[in-house]
Description:
Blueprint: E1 8-13, H1 17-31, H2 35-55, E2 59-65, E3 69-76, H3 83-90, H4 98-109, E4 112-116, E5 122-129, E6 161-163
Antiparallel strand pairs: 1-2, 2-3, 3-5, 4-5, 4-6
Helix pairs in contact: 1-2, 2-4, 3-4
Amino acid sequence: xxxxxxxxxxxxxxxxxxxxxxxxxxxxxxxxxxxxxxxxxxxxxxxxxxxxxxxxxxxxxxxxxxxxxxxxxxxxxxxxxxxxxxxxxxxxxxxxxxxxxxxxxxxxxxxxxxxxxxxxxxxxxxxxxxxxxxxxxxxxxxxxxxxxxxxxxxxxxxxxxxxxxxxxxxxxxxxx
Length: 176
């Protein structure tokens, strides 16, 4: 199967978050994600969808898979999420305010998180490897990323990514 023929998932973000989680769970399981990795991606995606409903109201979840893992894009039409907000959330303790906890959780659960603003919308890109970095037998391509040695940081530049501090440094390849 070529990249153009790859199975993808695309659905609107509505108040029916249980259905959204079910669709993503089924999609990710079909592509090979399982166990705790699947549960973590579902929780992170749920948190991102809740943020869309609370702060923008209109959004779309799109998922795709490749040899590296599963990639979920959460796009918020309002476009209000900034790199500064994301950096701040990733650097806070678990006891921070409720509005920040969802972003903090997303950063802790996913292997990589990217933020960009295509067409003025906010797009949060969540990346989850099929296997944790410590379990991989061979090197796999990873999203391009930058991280601070003391924690999670998304530099304020296009295409920059957050890598979970427990994940290995990223290579040069970027998922599409």
